[in-house]
Amino acid sequence: MVSAEGFTGLPGGVAVSHLSVYDWPAADGVCGGTPHMHLTCSEAYVVTGGRGAVQTLTTSGYEVTPLAAGTVAWFTPGTIHRLVNEDDLRITVLMQNSGLPEAGDAVLTLPPRYLADAETYAAVTVIPADAPEEERERIARTRRDLALEGYRALREADGPEPLAAFHRAAAALVRPRLAEWRERWERGAQAAAAATGEQLDRLEKGDVTHLADAAVRAELPSEHGRFGMCGRLDVYPGP
Fold this sequence. Notes:
It contains five helices and nine strands, in the order ββββββαβααααββ. The chain is α+β, with helices and mostly antiparallel strands. A hairpin with a 2-residue loop joins strand 3 (43-58) and strand 4 (61-68). The termini are close together. The mean pLDDT is 94.
């Protein structure tokens, strides 16, 4: 998927996963996932079943968007979001940049003491793939509850500085990975857009040879039930 002409990924360089939102109750009595923010990617929810909501926090304030079967909701980078499961909430998630939101472009709203450096952050957020199921669930729940602690502080903050400080800390945490992210973008969304540009150029010249390369592809999930930030994920092969 590197060359524009040969791009074979999903339309627009997006990625898809199926999400069953956690039904774990938190300290505030609300069931759901881990609040976090993306720095370079938009994300969309296509609700396929159940009922719930997404709580969001931006510089414009706090909002709650109800989610029910048929709802399509999306948000841009910088939106802190927390999924709430009220009744078996299930979502098909569309992620920009070939799934970068689940491949690194996410910072949990942990208390500031956990955002100081990458090692401290990783120690409380990484879920070892080879750990037993019970241990992976324990880590997922613990990091969710830590993120809720920081999230509540941001919601209750007096003035804009705490949210701005979180933005700065998040940017510092991800900076070492930006070159890797740029490569993913170049292979995915940039290549997909360039392919359309090339096709338009060809059609303007009456060249239809690219139509002879038409192809059909299909895939099943490569992994079922992964512990994600918001719930259990069925994921598809990456780029």
